[in-house]
# Entry
Amino acid sequence: MAAPIAWKRALLVAAIFVSAVGGVARSNHDQRVQPLTLYGEFKGRTVMLTATGRSAGAIESLQWGGTEFINASDNGRHLQSAVSFDGLTECDNPTEAGSSSDGWAPANSSSRMQDSSIAGNVLRTRTQMAYWLRLGQRRACGQARNDLSTSLSSTYLAKTVRFLPGFNNVLEHRIEFDLARPRALAQFEVLTAYMPEQFDTFYRFDPASGRMEPLSDGPGEQDLPVVLATSDGENALGLFTPQKAEPGLKGPGYGRWRFAQARVTKSNVVFRREGAGAGPHRFLVYTVFGSLGDVRSTLVSLYGRRRTVAERAPEPGRGDEPGTLAKN
# Structure
């Protein structure tokens, strides 16, 4: 068995090298059409995480052994970040992947990816986020209240994504929202995972017992990590942040939804900041994947590791010590 394993590792190294070389400098056209892919291996199965410019750098695919964990049918889905302001929900809602008007199976995004790279198997992007609604559109929240007369907002998102050292089934997301002006309230949907409908069984991870507890469809938000799994437990994904609340910052909240008609399920990690100042607001989130048992045991390890994590994190892209907590 040694020869096939060595051959597989060689392929992964070659793929990482090709992706890194291709990611250092891209034309605008290449950024729109070429994938930005991280490669890994977990339990002998290949892991591929892919973003493209057509979604402004939002993650549109996470595959483990050929199983797809992400639904990216429109630019409101993906594995991505968003923010809303002053309780206006969709009416003031910059979104990483794009806007509602981008449509089904979009070829382009209303958001604008300004920079992207892969080097050392680390994905970095910077994006000017589009408003989810165009100026004048109406929803239950009322009428869209965009700062600008175009679909682009004045909010920027920078992120770095890599495999967390020591964990082949954990992706570390360092995420920075850069606000152009102060806001009375910012609701940061720091990371949200839209998943295929077969991830139809919901759990809550209880760190006190180390167990997965069955969870209703909700929708709802609570203070323990949510895990979405296939009914057989062969595939599962959970989001977890080691970041804690602080003065003015509430959270984390972990939400879940089932959209039966749209054939998609969703979980997210949310923080809320009252009196959100202009400038950067930084967060750290882990995506944990594998079988349901893998996700449970990994979350046990991450909660144990949480106690040793420092209280301040580097900005996205700085490449500082892994595992430190983000702080606004």
The chain has one domain: 2-306. The CA atoms of residues 166 and 322 lie 10 Å apart. Helices lie at 2-24, 28-33, 292-306. Residues 2-24 form the longest helix (23 residues).
